[in-house]
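User: I'm curious whether this sequence folds into something compact or stays loose and floppy. Could you predict its structure so I can see for myself?
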Amino acid sequence: MRIATYNVEWFDALFDDAGQLLADDAPSARHGVTRRDQAEALGVVFTAMDADAVMVIEAPDSHRGRDGARALETFAATFGLRARKAVIGFTNTTQQEIALLYDPDVLSARHDPGESALAPRFDGIFEIDLDFDAHRDRVQFSKPPLELAMETRSGTRFRMIGAHLKSKAPHGAVTRDQIMRLSIANRRKQLAQAIWLRLRVAEHLKAGESLMVLGDLNDGPGLDEYEELFGRSSVEIVRGEGRDGPRLYDPNASIALQRRLGAQPTSARFYIAPQDRYLQALLDYIFVSPDLCAKRPEWRIWHPFNDPACWRTPELREALVVGSDHFPVTLDVEI
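Assistant: Here's the prediction. I'll summarize afterward.
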């Protein structure tokens, strides 16, 4: 079975309020790319992946009279994808949902949010002391993770959590001091979200459930200078350090955490206008529980320049560049 996660930059801009695909010559939300070019590029990428399930990050909006699941199913029908059924959990106000697009012939997927005294539902409020002032801060997800109960056609059950943690960008800050203060505050909030997510992960692992955590954590070792201030990245918190139950596993995360210098895997590519260059980063992950890791799954980042098969296929290579600023990550596993 092939499971994927794919952050599609402003997927919502490719659909009208009725969920119909806008494949025309008007500009998309991607700089210099038309809606037709982005839609066709995404069709090529999704077709090439041929995944049984895709966790879509920045999925079409399901707010203000729009139906993101309907939009995704329209997209799947347009390009004849096997993964043609969509499920969305708690919606948000960012126009960027988290959704699963899956093949109903091989899988069933049900939104199944959990809660406990330690870890509230992801649409709720998590209280934690962020700045050690003996005052509990109230943390919310701008994009609540998507918790799913999954079952294969043969009856195998497992859990999925799709996540898109808040960006650390200091929006609105102008001076150096403002940027520093907001960056630190944003990192505190993001780490609190990672702790919240890890608490839920630990509960699933304690219950003996097979688990995948996948999506865009917007964080990674060495991504900014504020990481050292707090000691751990969101990635390290979510995967676990052994003190709070079994670790989740993603080989790309392990490589990045072990190599502070030298070549590292990357899953996203952004243009930095002031410097006229591209920045690459590892932001997208598929973590699995120890029992799934024992099945010896295979991970792949569909990077147009680093993956040989993508590089040797010009149509796919170009589609990956045009479709999004992130590249898909897939997991092939016997399940």
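Summary: The chain has a mean pLDDT of 91. The longest strand covers residues 157-164.
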